[in-house]
């Protein structure tokens, strides 16, 4: 069997997906690392954390399992504002901020992830946070566009709302002046080209990807943006679309594009068992729309769903 070569994600926040929890709090965390290292001794282990467990003793023990990359979620280095955002005591968040310089001391790679809140923090504060991460040798920066749902109170939206175009422009400038890799999610400037071998294929896509896919797509295919009615708010990414969103959009799209021969769904909303975040199987889309349907990833690889 071919050895797995790439890095291994022990916990992560994938673009457009929900957090998977704090891996460092698992009671058998180090036992799990022992098992992984026996099979994969040299693969980098990627671990997403809020930084609350990163004491010197913990990092020293963790370094025994290097190579490791820690992605620390740090939205501001202003302790009072961070305490407000996290709803935690001031002493709690100060420990997180103070732990950042220790990471490199144990030869662990540092990456920083933040939700920019310019209305609450100001762009200057966001730049200071980024500079703090870079000064501590962060090799990667991840900026997530703050999202909210239809259930979010207006007073909270007024605090966390961030113009995506403004954030995109901020990220472009940041990429020009720092050596670290800089990612933004969603990246509205990133080109998307998916090889599609079918004719008259209908691609049900997220609102975030729609314009970029249509721009690079063939005229022999159809594209339809799926509105996220499940979460609502400003959620436009594919990973948070639910099966019912695809069914609702698919009915409208098939009326608009009656010559459709096959429906293609993005892979991001579904797990390895082809279920959405509510564990609803993608097969339900086929059953409701009565059309040949398949899941397609960014490489054009296809997983067919059976039509009953």
Task: Kindly describe this structure.
The chain is α/β, with parallel strands linked by helices. It folds into two domains: 8-185, Aldolase class I (TIM Barrel), CATH 3.20.20.70; 201-305. 36% of the residues lie in helices and 19% in strands. It is built from eleven helices and eleven strands. The protein has helices at 29-39, 56-62, 79-86, 90-105, 118-121, 123-135, 154-160, 164-177, 207-216, 243-256, 283-289; strands at 8-11, 45-49, 68-73, 109-114, 138-144, 181-185, 201-206, 222-226, 262-266, 293-296, 302-305. The strands form two sheets. It has a six-stranded parallel β-sheet with strand order 1-2-3-4-5-6, with helices on one face. The longest helix has 16 residues, at 90-105.
From the structure above, extract its key features.
308 residues; alpha/beta; TIM Barrel; five-stranded mixed beta sheet
SSE layout:
Blueprint: E1 8-11, H1 29-39, E2 45-49, H2 56-62, E3 68-73, H3 79-86, H4 90-105, E4 109-114, H5 118-121, H6 123-135, E5 138-144, H7 154-160, H8 164-177, E6 181-185, E7 201-206, H9 207-216, E8 222-226, H10 243-256, E9 262-266, H11 283-289, E10 293-296, E11 302-305
Parallel strand pairs: 1-2, 2-3, 3-4, 4-5, 5-6, 7-8, 7-9, 9-10
Antiparallel strand pairs: 10-11
Helix pairs in contact: 3-4, 10-11
**Tally of distinct domains:** 2
How many DSSP-defined strands? 11
Write the CATH homologous superfamily of the largest domain.
Answer: Aldolase class I
Which CATH architecture of the largest domain is right?
Alpha-Beta Barrel
The main pleated sheet reads as:
6 strands, parallel
